[in-house]
Amino acid sequence: MEETEIWTEKYRPRKLDELVGQAEIVARLKTFVKTKALPHTLFAGPPGTGKTTAALCLARELFGEEYWRQNLLELNASDERGIDTIRERVKDYARTMPIGEVPYKIVLLDEADALTPEAQHALRRTMEMYSRSCRFILDCNYSSRIIEPIQSRCALFRFRRLTDEEVGEMLKRIAKGEGLTLDPKAVEAVIRVSEGDLRRAINLLQAAAAVRKHVTEKAVYEVAAAAHPEEVREMVELALRGDFEGARKKLYELLIDRGLSGEDVLGQVHREILNLKIPERKKLELVERVGEFSFRITEGANERIQLEAMLAQFALVGS
């Protein structure tokens, strides 16, 4: 392995048994490998939970190291999302016979929820016509964006977000392999920022380790473009105590000195509200206001003005 290799690829599982945190799905997929009776499948779940990796591991175990690349067509549907891709590339590949003992090939459509409705309807018919020589694996973040006729033709696998313990174990394994030392708080920071997305967690760790082999909590927050939770909590508490000027000053530190976007700040404020030692009724009011200002910023309003208005609302709730 080259030193410059991206760790998400370097530590990507090669076998189904190596997948992190998806034991039930692995057991079902191994049954398909054993019987070679693979149906069309739909992998759905949050990003960074192993959907694409599971498809690649499945292809490796079905066809073996010698033939899996020749028998797998991987397309990113967010790049090639039109009907022409389905009519031309997918059909041309599906109508050719596989290499090896397995009687079908695999088409992996990554980010399939980005396919246009027209392309999905064309795909539905293609799945029926070439089911003898080809199996389709669609992976997506939102299965609701896949049309019902395709969902009904697929075995559905729902991937869940990884637990803190599972992400932490993977980080420690990588640290051991790369000769890193991790502060316990640095591990907690990566877990907090990544929110169950293992790919993001590994990328954060690699970025934080780029400068020195000893990874600290401060280094993690610097590369993550995120504020320390205590800073955000202090800003919210200042506003609730009625110190609007102090809260506003803290907000400017996050926006200007740290370079955070308004949406980043809102996301962290939302998380910290749930950790505040205030009555539940006040938490409800604060979350409602965060939702309102999130909508305004999404619609294009000036984020600095909106965040200041949010702190003003917090001061009114606190009073």
Topology:
Layout: H1 7-10, H2 23-35, E1 41-44, H3 51-67, E2 72-76, H4 83-94, E3 105-110, H5 117-129, E4 134-140, H6 148-153, E5 155-158, H7 164-178, E6 181-182, H8 184-194, H9 198-208, E7 214-215, H10 217-224, H11 229-240, H12 244-257, H13 262-273, H14 280-298, H15 303-318
Parallel strand pairs: 1-4, 1-5, 2-3, 3-4, 6-7
Helix pairs in contact: 2-3, 4-5, 7-8, 7-9, 8-9, 8-10, 9-10, 11-12, 11-13, 11-15, 12-15, 13-14, 14-15
Verbal overview:
It contains 15 helices and seven strands. It is of the alpha/beta class and 319 residues long. α8 (184-194) crosses α9. It is globular. The model has no long low-confidence stretch (mean pLDDT 89).
Q: The CATH topology of the largest domain is what? A: Rossmann fold
Number of distinct helices: 15
Poorly predicted residue ranges: none
Q: What is the radius of gyration computed over CA atoms, rounded to a whole number of angstroms?
A: 24 Å
**Tally of discrete structural domains:** 3
Q: Give, in spatial order, the strands making up the sheet with the most strands.
A: 2-3-4-1-5
In short:
The chain has 319 residues and is α/β, with parallel strands linked by helices. It has helices spanning 7-10, 23-35, 51-67, 83-94, 117-129, 148-153, 164-178, 184-194, 198-208, 217-224, 229-240, 244-257, 262-273, 280-298, 303-318; strands spanning 41-44, 72-76, 105-110, 134-140, 155-158, 181-182, 214-215. The chain folds into 3 domains: 7-158, P-loop containing nucleotide triphosphate hydrolases (Rossmann fold), CATH 3.40.50; 164-224, Helicase, Ruva Protein, domain 3 (Orthogonal Bundle); 229-318, Zinc Finger, Delta Prime, domain 3, CATH 1.20.272.10.
